[in-house]
Amino acid sequence: MEIRLVDKTSSVLDTPRIAADRFGRPHIVYGYLIDDWSADYALKYAYRDRFGWHIENISDLGQTGPHSSIAVDILGRPRIAYLSYPEGSLMYAVRDGAGWHAEEIDPDPSAWPVLCLDRNGEPRGVYSYLPSWFTREKRYASRGSDGWSIETLDQEFSGEFTGFDIDLLGTDHIAFVQFNPGIPGNEVVYLSRDAAGWHEEVVVQGRLISDYAELAVNENGLVGIKLRHPKIVRI
Fold this sequence. Notes:
There is one protein chain. This protein has 235 residues and is mainly beta. The protein is 0% helix and 61% strand. A hairpin with a 2-residue loop joins β10 and β11.
């Protein structure tokens, strides 16, 4: 495994998010402390080409919340989902030759977005509506010709992080951890959608399951879910 230092100048507290372009080059977005004396965040964007790493402060977006996600389109343009400050509304931005261009997805206070692009390059995202610490409503957002549409997926108390991927047929696959008071531990919930609508199933239950689940779909449609403890579950 090769380890490289990307940015040694920032106080990074949130988990950096990474995506690869069609040439396999990494693109990273991460929240950092503007200075060591505040709790104020902004975002940085880093990418690597044959000349090395390039880092930029995303100053066009101003101060933001710490949570963000990144995807890269077929033209190599980074797209990010992030939180506004201080409102906490969910935002979406694209970078082109003229800089970053942002638009609002959901005005409600949100957290932990995960962004994906469908086969047409249109963005879809999953995130939590977070009016309070004990209310975590999972939401799904997609953008079409008439703007953003938002659906509620789950209103139970669930974990902070969500796995999200889209297969070659355009099918959504989602995984997250749900805290179920009726079992001795937590459960991983898997959601998928077809022409008939959303389908939900519990993948695994147990005391050792953390609040984190990653999901990936290969070109053959095989879904893999990885838990932090770690444990691999295939559906």
